[in-house]
Amino acid sequence: DVVRDLSDPDNVCGLEDHIVLNLKQPWQSSSSPLPHLPKGLHLENDGCRIVTTGQSFVENCDFLTELGVVGALLAGCVSFESSDGLATAARTVLSNAETLVIVHNRDYVLDLVEWFPSVEVLVLYHDIRIHRLQGGFPVVPGPRMSRLRRLLGSVPAIGAPGLFIDRKLVLGLMASCPQLREVQTSMHNVLVPGRPQIVIMFSTFYRPLLTSCSLILGNNYECLDGRMCCFQNAVNITPEHLILVHQLFRRLRRLEVTTTSMETVAEISRFRDISELSLTFSSGMVYTFSGTLETALKRLRLKHLSLRCVKDVVPSAIVRHWPNLETLMLIDCTVAESEEGGVPKDSLHTMVNLRMSFFCDTSCSDRLVAEAGKELLDATTHLLTLHLDGELLCPFFVFRCVFVPMPYIEHLTLATELPLPELGLTVDDLHKLVSALPSLRHVTTDSYDIR
């Protein structure tokens, strides 16, 4: 959402040397010392936004500073570290900016925090830097101490949903940013159970962070073909981790957990205010949906649910336990037959984002996969985003749309690399698909034929 306020998230990653500036007030020639914008600057959004390039940004530094920039996005630009001109201009123009988005960032996050102390929300979108603490323990002293509240981002190049920040640097950020409330990276190396000083440290020195609504525990990585992979030694979140988190973080609404233990899953039921949960089983282990997992999670009033590497997921149970789901992601899962009566049509009327990635084994046949796909699609009425994995679900969806159009879908991912003949599809089938999706504006696939 932060990126969307400044640019289109679907297109921004393909841009180079692109800068967007949000102004405190719309620019008007009548109130400006210049009758026209300088060359290289372009107005958008009714004069509230200026779009430019790195060179024009530097050349018009003084003019832009006078406008009062409150937010900025830099996409595909050179690093500040490698360009003194861009760095100096940015520090001047953005001296009072509250939001900064950098697409394909190449600078260290601690440098960014020091250079832009007024920024409250820093987003490193598609970050390409691994952040480690360089030198001693950092503290930014004096009245220019950072106002940073939220540090967000992802590293899709290696399949990481959060930023790559090591433990010492996280602690350094907590010391440098006294108002920090959210860091989109795993906190499992900081929140170490069995150490009383952790509770004292957070309760005494880092109280703002305890008001965070979102927390990541453990890392998982998504391969280019959609499969999940995890590093066991780095992500084994234990029940003690969750007990400690529950003791410290009382306002959590969003929780991501990667674990190898069903005992850990049982502890998730402590977090009664959670509305968004992502649960991944690592080390290639696949755990059954029915039993401990279903019992623990059904107590939560979830609106967003992501399950990865879970066996025998029952579609009707999903709908029964969480009828108000807005997002459902079932990744590297197998499915079981629904309970008697199946999934009622239009029962997930609030669902806008659905991902299905099923695989077949001895207990999950092609028929069960197709039935689960049909039931979940029939249960939705206003899907905006749909992600389908595999050679079974992709052609199934294409054929289905001929008879059941989905007029609201804007984003579609068909995660397959197979050519049309191997999918059992023709060019005419794809033309019919497009006709059945009138709102479609973004498609992702590895299939050359489909592209």
**Major sheet: order of its strands?**
9-12-13-15-17-18-19-20-21
N- to C-terminal distance = 27 Å
Beta strand %? 15-25%
Largest sheet: 9 strands, parallel
Please report the number of helical segments.
15
Classify the helix fraction into a percent range. 25-40%
Radius of gyration: 24 Å
Class by alpha and beta content: alpha/beta
Strands, total number: 21
Overall shape = globular
CATH topology of the domain at 1-132 and 145-185: Leucine-rich repeat, LRR (right-handed beta-alpha superhelix)
Mean pLDDT across the residues is 88
Unreliable stretches covering 5 or more consecutive residues: none
Structure description:
- The chain has 451 residues and is an alpha/beta fold.
- The protein is built from 15 helices and 21 strands.
- The chain has helices at 54-59, 61-67, 84-93, 109-115, 167-176, 196-205, 232-235, 239-248, 262-267, 292-297, 315-321, 366-379, 393-403, 420-423, 427-436; strands at 18-23, 42-44, 49-52, 69-75, 99-103, 121-125, 150-153, 182-183, 214-217, 221-222, 228-229, 254-259, 276-281, 287-288, 304-308, 310-311, 327-333, 353-358, 385-389, 411-415, 442-445.
- A 9-stranded parallel β-sheet has the order 9-12-13-15-17-18-19-20-21.
- Strand 5, helix 4 (109-115) and strand 6 (121-125) form a beta-alpha-beta unit.
- The protein is globular, with a radius of gyration of 24 Å.
